[in-house]
């Protein structure tokens, strides 16, 4: 099968050189006028070559035979190649109209369908299969976006403003127009298009969003754009022999390289392989290959008397490129302010398969125009063949290719493998300083979060609801002053030499009062959350009396008796009474609360004094009776006795 393909390719090449001789006879001139001119070709995933000529669209097998053809009502534009739009459909530019051609199904052909007819000049179009959209540049109008059912999505113009500032068209705002076909970067979901002032635009596929605009007019206004699908955009200036690599995310120029003289038009279009090497042919006969970082490699044993006039083509494996070199009898290069290349009669054409990464040539064949063994029994004999057409059929037939062709799955998996995500550097400087700064920020954030939480708990306190903050602080200062006064009083009483029962009871009352003050400072008047004091058990400083209850009875002269019962108060009842008293006092303002506390303390001390005085002059049964003791509950019961007649 490989030998048969090689035989057909040899016939095509021999036929090309016979009809491309410089000195032609009159009979040959008349015969050439009857030959048809093919448009730019497209090599499909099925290995076929697609092109159009006049009013017909052709699908060729790799050996040059016609697989099928469709007649069109309009003449095709030979300067543009067909574009595959998915779903077994092709879009073809014909007389400023875009036709949609369906592949035959079960041998049945369908008529071409009108897809877009603006009534104006179409400068070019591109198809995004992933978004099922078509992007068309119409002269003097802008960039149009349509979906596959011919619904208009949006229209973009080169004149745009953002936040009151003009973007693009800085030099001639009134006459600024798009003047290039759109180019799609599938990995970045972007569209690249240029205007007549030498500015390159990057737009989003999903809407009218200008990602960046790069002004290249300082170099040249005429350039070609090729997406690398690897995070780079390659811009070639044919008249300057320069190759630029731009960042597809920001539009910044990463590197620029100088190459040999380039042919204008399609000859200056580079090709990118799966290893992210970009290759471009020069009129000096050299294939220049650059890596993603700008490293240059050229094939070995380059012929000096040769030139590359057509763009290289990628093979089916994606690792190598097919190159066509034309050997000449003589060639003169003049490189100065402008580059000129003068060539004499071509002798032979050399078609090679080159791997740019290794600079190795895996296959190469030379064909002379003096061959006489012609077997023109194929369909290509009706068309004019040049190097571009012959190179397309050689690439489609995989001549001399030792590599395995990629499947559709392999193409999808490796299409954006070299596209690196963009990492934005927020901080620029010393790495150690940045780390310490981030650590300091983290500490500040933690402290701020703790402060916010503290403030949130603080402002939920019951004592701050409906009263000013100054009153809360005044009450807090008053409680602190009261605690210090109690501490000083307790210390003074303990240092006195007398240790009678009255002093002990007074110290006990002061200790209890100090505990109440501390409880208020740690709960209702603290700087934290409120704590329910009733839920905590109250610890007594002095032990309670452990005996049982006793009663004292008195009788007066009127036969009335009074019985006094002395019992111990239960701890829970004492706590509840104190909690009720504290709550009652806390509901008042700070000053009234303090006055009530001081009055209560005075009353307790006065009661103790009276109880002590009364107990010193009474019997032993009455000396332990306290009238207003804080540790006893006294119940009075008065009974009226009935008088006997």
UniProtKB/TrEMBL annotation:
Annotated SUPFAM superfamilies: Quinoprotein alcohol dehydrogenase-like (SSF50998)
Region Disordered: start-end pairs: 564-626
Q: Which InterPro entries match?
A: GEX3-like, Quinoprotein_ADH-like_sf, WD40/YVTN_repeat-like_dom_sf
Acidic residues bias spans: 585-598
Residue ranges of the TM segments: 434-459
Keyword list (alphabetical) reads:
Membrane, Signal, Transmembrane, Transmembrane helix
- Signal sequence span per UniProt? 1-23
The answer to keyword Transmembrane helix applying to this record is yes
Biased-composition ranges for Basic and acidic residues?
568-584
What is the name of the protein in this document?
Protein GAMETE EXPRESSED 3
Species lineage:
Eukaryota, Viridiplantae, Streptophyta, Embryophyta, Tracheophyta
């Amino acid at each position: 099968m490989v030998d048969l393909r090689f035989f057909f390719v040899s016939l095509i090449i021999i036929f090309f050189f016979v009809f491309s001789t410089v000195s032609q006879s009159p009979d040959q001139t008349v015969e050439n006028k009857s030959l048809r001119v093919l448009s730019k070709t497209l090599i499909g995933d099925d290995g076929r070559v697609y092109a159009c000529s006049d009013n017909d669209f052709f699908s060729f097998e790799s050996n040059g035979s016609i697989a099928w053809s469709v007649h069109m009502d309009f003449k095709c534009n030979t300067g543009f190649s067909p574009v595959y739009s998915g779903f077994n459909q092709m879009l073809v530019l014909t007389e400023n109209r875009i036709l949609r051609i369906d592949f035959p199904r079960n041998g049945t052909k369908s008529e071409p369908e009108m897809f877009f007819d603006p009534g104006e000049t179409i400068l070019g179009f591109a198809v995004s299969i992933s978004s099922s959209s078509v992007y068309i540049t119409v002269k003097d109008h802008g960039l149009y976006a349509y979906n596959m059912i011919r619904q208009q999505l949006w229209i973009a113009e080169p004149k745009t403003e953002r936040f009151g500032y003009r973007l693009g068209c800085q030099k001639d705002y009134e006459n600024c127009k798009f003047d290039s076909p759109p180019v799609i970067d599938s990995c970045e979901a972007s569209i690249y298009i240029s205007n007549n002032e030498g500015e390159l635009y990057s737009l989003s596929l999903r809407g009218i969003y200008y990602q960046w605009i790069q002004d290249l007019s300082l170099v040249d206004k005429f350039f070609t754009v090729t997406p690398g699908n690897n995070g780079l955009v390659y811009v070639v200036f044919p008249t300057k022999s320069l190759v630029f690599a731009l960042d597809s995310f920001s539009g910044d120029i990463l590197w620029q390289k100088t190459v040999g003289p380039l042919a204008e038009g399609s000859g200056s279009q580079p090709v990118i392989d799966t290893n992210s090497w970009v290759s471009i042919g020069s009129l000096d006969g050299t294939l220049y290959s650059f890596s993603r970082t700008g490293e240059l490699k050229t094939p070995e044993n380059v012929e000096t008397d040769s030139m590359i006039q057509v763009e290289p083509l990628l093979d089916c494996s994606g690792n190598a490129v097919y190159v066509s070199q034309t050997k000449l009898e003589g060639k003169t290069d003049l490189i100065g302010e402008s580059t000129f290349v003068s060539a004499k009669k071509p002798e032979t054409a050399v078609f090679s398969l080159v791997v740019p990464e290794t600079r190795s040539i895996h296959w190469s064949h030379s064909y002379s125009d003096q061959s006489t063994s012609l077997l023109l029994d194929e369909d290509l004999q009706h068309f004019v063949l040049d190097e571009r057409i012959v190179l397309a059929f050689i690439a489609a037939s995989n001549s001399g290719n030792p590599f395995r062709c990629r499947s559709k799955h392999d193409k999808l998996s490796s299409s954006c493998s070299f596209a690196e995500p963009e990492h934005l550097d927020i901080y620029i400087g010393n790495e150690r300083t940045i780390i310490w700064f981030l650590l300091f920020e983290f500490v500040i954030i933690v402290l701020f979060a703790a402060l916010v939480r503290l403030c949130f708990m603080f402002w939920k306190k019951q004592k701050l609801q409906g009263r000013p903050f100054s009153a809360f602080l005044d009450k807090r200062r008053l409680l602190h002053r009261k605690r210090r006064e109690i501490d000083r009083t307790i210390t003074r009483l303990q240092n006195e030499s007398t240790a009678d029962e009255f002093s002990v009871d007074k110290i006990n009352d002061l200790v209890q009062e100090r505990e109440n003050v501390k409880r208020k400072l740690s709960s209702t008047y603290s700087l934290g959350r409120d704590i329910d004091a009733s839920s905590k058990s109250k610890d007594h400083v002095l032990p309670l009396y452990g005996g049982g209850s006793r009663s004292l009875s008195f009788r007066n002269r009127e036969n009335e008796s009074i019985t006094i019962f002395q019992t111990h108060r239960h701890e829970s009842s004492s706590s509840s009474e104190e909690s009720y008293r504290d709550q009652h006092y806390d509901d008042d303002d700070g000053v009234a609360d303090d006055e009530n506390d001081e009055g209560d303390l005075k009353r307790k001390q006065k009661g103790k004094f009276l109880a002590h005085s009364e107990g010193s002059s009474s019997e032993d049964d009455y000396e332990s009776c306290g009238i207003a003791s804080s540790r006893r509950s006294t119940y009075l019961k008065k009974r009226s006795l009935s008088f006997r007649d």
